[in-house]
Write a structure and sequence with these properties.
Layout lengths: L1 H18 L2 E5 L6 E3 L5 E3 L2 E5 L6 E8 L2 E9 L7 E5 L2 E3 L5 E7 L2 E19 L17 E4 L1 E2 L12 E3 L9 E2 L4 H14 L3 E5 L23 H11 L6 E7 L9 H19 L5 E5 L11 H9 L1 H4 L3 E4 L14 H19 L13 E6 L6 E6 L3 E2 L13 E3 L6 E7 L4 E6 L7 E4 L4 E2 L2 E5 L6 E2 L8 E5 L6 H6 L5 E6 L7 E7 L3 E9 L4 E10 L2 E7 L12 E8 L4 E8 L2
Parallel strand pairs: 2-10, 10-15, 10-16, 11-15, 16-17, 17-18
Antiparallel strand pairs: 1-4, 3-8, 4-7, 5-6, 5-9, 9-10, 11-13, 12-14, 19-20, 20-24, 21-28, 22-25, 23-24, 25-29, 26-27, 30-31, 31-34, 32-33, 32-35, 35-36
Helix pairs in contact: 2-7, 4-5
Length: 577
């Protein structure tokens, strides 16, 4: 062991001595992630000057997974007293680690290792944006972060190192902390797509949206949470390659007057992001969960958040309603892991070409209207099929729809139109003008007990977005009628459930090119039944309940998807064998 120690000290001394002959203006850092471009690669610049004459050549050696992969050389010219050099090799995204070595003639003068190429994401908000793990543990050389998570503390500008992401979060001096769901998101991207990632988490517990706004005179003010995150992204050289920002915040603004300013303040924040992180492809917003750590205007904030996707073309809103493990304010590890799973489906669709796109968004309403002239039933049109939950021992979903802020008027609820429409039958004729789904924070008549369901969900268990004070129209609008389902196609399957074969009937209102395929619950395509033009009218197909390779499929839930250029529809099929 003593001989190894002596050798390492001699090697370090040799590198330090040789390095005095070279200055670097550009050189990768240990554990650095370089953002990939559209060609799944990144240029790594190595540049500087050789200070002392006498050396003939400078070489850059690049090792990939410890094997020499690429070598470049340049002749040195001391015309100005120092010899400049510059290399611009490309590395490629994937499960590769690169080591860079610089040699003067036969002497190594610098090296850095564990360099990767991949994708960059940012997280910001209040405490649910950066939760610390209780039991969840994961670490990988391909999941990176940069700098420290300091919560409310000013940032030390010297903290500019790369490291492996950790699931820490609720702390003020944590290296490379990305929180539970942030790290789980990295893990899922890694395991499914083999892509290294960097997440930088700038969350600050209990912070209001105004606290998260930039200093208008200095966006990189290190005493602000906005400036700290921007500084870290800039020093990591990723600020112009951020694919998405995740925003999880709102409890601290669910009061008067802050709720009144929430939309305007988010607009300021959003535009600052667009300015400082060009080009920012996506923003993912988590809608608040009803809870006891917010104020008396949580419903207002949730409604504002629900409408962000209508205001901003690149914003997606994910529900938190229906997540497990909520304690009225935060979640246990299982809840945060489920949060990562829900948002991962959107990320993999938007950035990794996933075909698993059925019911991955949180259900949202299209319109609310009275179904009849007597106003004894209300229809709620959703943008995807939803499920009306069974009553629990103590609570019924019907009691958490409010007509003009009052509950108790709904006799029963159920779905029609293949789940796209929720119907509320009323106890009496009503002239209410506004409908709300979910209480502000707690159960009816239980002002200290945070609401934890029942919930409207889609077929995959994702909770529907809550809504607040949505006008109840006298009847369906022209838009609703034109979008009513079935629209371009009507579909029937039988028997369903089935144990051998399934007959599929569909009717088209016009000639359409359709791809008809079967997917399992994980979004994996198991069979393609047709991909062709079909004339208007009725058509019939028979699926033998098998896969394309004649593999026998197991019992379970499958989806038949009809996809055309201008629409996509799906139906659930259950196999029982």
């Amino acid at each position: 062991m003593r001989h190894i120690f002596v050798y390492l000290n001699i090697l370090f001394l040799a590198l330090a001595t040789n390095a005095q002959q070279v200055t670097f203006s550009k050189f990768p850092a240990r554990l650095q992630l370089f953002p990939r471009d559209n060609q799944d690669s990144a240029v790594v610049q190595v540049a500087g000057n050789v200070l002392s004459a006498g050396y003939q050549k400078i070489a850059l050696k690049i090792y990939r997974d410890a094997v020499l992969w690429k070598q470049m050389e340049q002749n040195l010219d001391y015309a100005t007293g120092e010899a400049p050099f510059s290399f611009s090799p490309k590395i490629f995204a994937g499960l590769y680690e690169y080591r860079f070595e610089v040699w003067l003639d036969n002497q190594k003068v610098a090296e850095e290792d564990s360099i990767v190429c991949g994708d960059v994401f940012l997280i910001n908000g209040q405490s649910n944006s950066h939760p610390g793990a209780t039991t969840y543990s994961f670490q990988s050389e391909f999941c990176r972060s940069f700098g420290k998570h300091t919560n409310y503390d000013d940032y030390n500008p010297a903290d500019t190192t790369w490291g492996l992401s950790t699931p820490e979060g609720w702390c003020s001096d944590c290296d490379y902390a990305v929180g539970v769901w942030g790290l789980r998101l990295q893990q899922m991207i890694l395991e499914k797509y083999g892509m290294p990632t960097c997440i930088i988490n700038g969350g600050s517990g209990g912070s209001s949206i105004s606290y998260n706004l930039p200093d208008s005179n200095d966006h990189m003010n290190l005493s602000t949470t906005y400036g700290r995150l921007l500084y870290r992204a800039t020093k990591a050289h990723v600020q112009n390659a951020v694919k998405a920002i995740f925003w999880h915040q709102g409890e601290s603004d669910s009061n008067t007057p802050d709720a009144d300013y929430y939309a305007a303040r988010f607009d300021t924040l959003y535009n600052a992001w667009r300015q400082d992180y060009q080009p920012l492809t996506k923003v993912y917003v988590f809608q608040l969960h009803p809870g006891t750590c917010g104020g008396d205007r949580q419903s207002d904030v949730r409604e504002i958040q629900r409408n962000f996707k209508k205001t901003y073309g690149n914003v997606h809103v994910m529900a938190t309603c229906g997540l497990v493990g909520h304690d009225g304010c935060h979640y246990n590890d299982d809840g945060y892991l489920q949060m990562a799973e829900w948002i991962f489906r959107l990320v993999e669709r938007d950035f990794y070409g996933a075909t698993d796109t059925l019911n991955i968004e949180a259900p949202d309403i299209r319109e609310v209207y009275y179904q009849d002239a007597d106003h004894r039933s209300i229809a709620i049109e959703y943008d995807q099929p939803v499920i009306w939950p069974e009553d629990t021992l103590n609570h019924s979903m019907k009691d958490y729809f409010y007509l003009d802020d009052e509950f108790g008027y709904v006799k029963q609820g159920y779905t029609i139109n293949n789940g796209y429409t929720v119907v509320l039958d009323l106890n009496t004729s009503m002239n209410a003008g506004l409908l709300t789904y979910l209480p502000n924070a707690t159960y009816n008549r239980l002002p200290t007990m945070a609401y934890e369901g029942p919930w409207i969900r889609n077929e995959r268990g994702v909770g529907a977005l809550s809504f607040y004070h949505v006008p109840i129209n006298a009847g369906p609008s022209a838009i609703s009628e034109s979008e009513a389902l079935p629209e371009q196609i009507s579909i029937n399957t039988y028997p369903n459930p089935a144990n051998a074969g399934v007959r599929i009937e569909f009717e088209l209102v016009k000639s359409t090119r359709l791809t008809i395929a079967i997917f399992d619950v994980n979004g994996r395509k198991v069979a393609t039944l047709a991909s062709q033009h079909f004339p208007a009218g009725k058509h019939y197909l028979l699926w033998n309940a098998g896969a394309e390779n004649d593999q026998i499929l197991s019992s379970g839930t499958y989806w038949i998807r009809f996809k055309a250029n201008d629409f996509e529809k799906a139906r659930k099929i259950v196999l029982i064998k």
